[in-house]
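Quick one: structure for this chain?
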Amino acid sequence: MARWRLVGPAGVRVGWSSRLFAMTIGWAALVGLIGLVGVTMFQDHLLYYPERATLDEMQMLSGGLAPWPTAPEFRALLAEPEAPARATVIVFHGNAGHAGHRDYYAEALVPLGLRVLLAEYPAYGPRTGALGETSLVADAVRTISLARDSYPGPLLVIGESLGAGVAAAASARRRDAVAGVLLITPWDKLENVARHHYPLLPVRALLRDRYDSAANLASFGRPVFVAIAEHDRVIPAHFGQALGAALAPPKRLSIIAGADHNDWFLRVGDRWWRAAIDFLLAGEASGSPG
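Got it. Here's what it folds into:
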């Protein structure tokens, strides 16, 4: 049997081993292309983990918090302090579950004299709508605007994880309405986190949602408090530190000792919350320019 079966350019003979190598490279390229297409098409499922629930189910989980503004137009769960609120806080939660799971914010903040709105995203809980940065940020802007029109006094925005990206973008668009922002377990920009978790993928080319918090808040001009979980395995601490370094004053950075991404709230207490809120409201009290 002849050893050589193929003839390549310029009469160069190509052996079975070369043909097999070429076939292997071809199949690898095809599999890689299919993988890239899959990542592009289904990246929403990698970033967003919405949980559907009825409003009644959400209220039950949250201890009976009221729907806001009303049930048909529901966009948040409301918790009111007994005395007149000294400020209103909107909370944009992380990517999993729904707002009904975040009653720990109300438990921490209402005793400080704050009105709390646990905002819900489109396509989460009972709400309709689309996933994605464009949809979530636009909806958050509407929530901020409605809260600003509904309540007197300072308006603060809190964002956790994915919600930090939403809060940063929406607050930048309504900087005239927002007195200060607290970002918990945030990133500087989503691209950096995606590259960390998927180092072999061309993230810049594939990523549809950007959530560039460093750029969004570059000229914010309001107090920003950045809280980082020391041992965060989802959004490693250096991404939050990079965000803190990129921000202009007034800003403050807090590293929550011993905390991972999903247990930070167990490691902070009343003193921590008071310090964070007082810092955010200090600019309002001093007449910080807007």
